[in-house]
């Protein structure tokens, strides 16, 4: 059974940094795209950054210049380095992955989310 588990969330002060991790486990043939989303109360879930299996990245405007997505394929893990955090970054952060099983079926998975609170 495939699972995505986020870690690294918590309470930080404005201007600070935080690194989120998301590790995939289970019977996995390969992981294609991975990404980070966030959702603040009363708002739509927002795609922040995505990364392909080869390392190509895309960022939302809200993430450019401050956030960096990366992955370690050997560990089936994706990271989100967040710098210069603002109170507006307060949200639940979710990782997402397109995972191919040994059957070659490609499925979309979500983590449970990790809370990030930026205090001012």
If you had to describe this structure to a student in words, what would you say it looks like?
The N and C termini lie far apart (40 Å). The chain contains no helices and 11 strands. It has 120 residues and is an all-beta fold. The chain has strands spanning 3-7, 10-13, 18-25, 30-39, 46-51, 57-59, 67-72, 77-82, 91-100, 106-110, 114-119. The strands form 2 sheets. Strands 2, 4, 5, 6, 9, 10 and 11 form a 7-stranded mixed β-sheet that branches. A 4-stranded antiparallel β-sheet has the order 1-3-8-7, with no helix packed on it. The chain is 0% helix and 57% strand. A hairpin with a 6-residue loop joins strand 4 and strand 5.
């Amino acid at each position: 059974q495939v699972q995505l588990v986020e870690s690294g969330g918590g309470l930080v002060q404005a201007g600070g940094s935080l690194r989120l991790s998301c590790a995939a486990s289970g019977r996995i043939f390969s992981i294609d795209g991975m990404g980070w989303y966030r959702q603040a109360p009363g708002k739509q879930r927002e795609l922040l950054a995505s990364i392909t299996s080869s390392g190509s990245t895309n960022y939302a405007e809200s993430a450019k210049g401050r956030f960096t997505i990366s992955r370690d394929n050997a560990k089936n893990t994706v990271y989100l380095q967040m710098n210069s955090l603002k109170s507006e970054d307060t949200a639940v952060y979710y990782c997402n992955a397109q995972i191919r099983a040994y059957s070659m079926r490609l499925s979309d998975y979500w983590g449970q989310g990790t809370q990030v609170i930026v205090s001012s």
